[in-house]
Amino acid sequence: MxxxxxxxxxxxxxxxxxxxxxxxxxxxxxxxQDVIDAYQYLIDTGIVWNLQGRYGRQAQHLIEVGLCTxxxxxxxxxx
Length: 79
Prior knowledge:
The protein is mostly helical.
């Protein structure tokens, strides 16, 4: 029998909720743009509004300063 080799796919890995949180919390190394992209993913999926409050507050701040955009189908965050 031949041994199978799994190759890395030639396109970027799809972000998941865990990936986004790990980038935001610093468990995975990333640039400032990676952190913004992670927040944008959580905003787009609506998950950010169901996490601990600090995630929603930071997401709201990023929206207010224009670094992220709010999806129209998601609730807005309020303290």
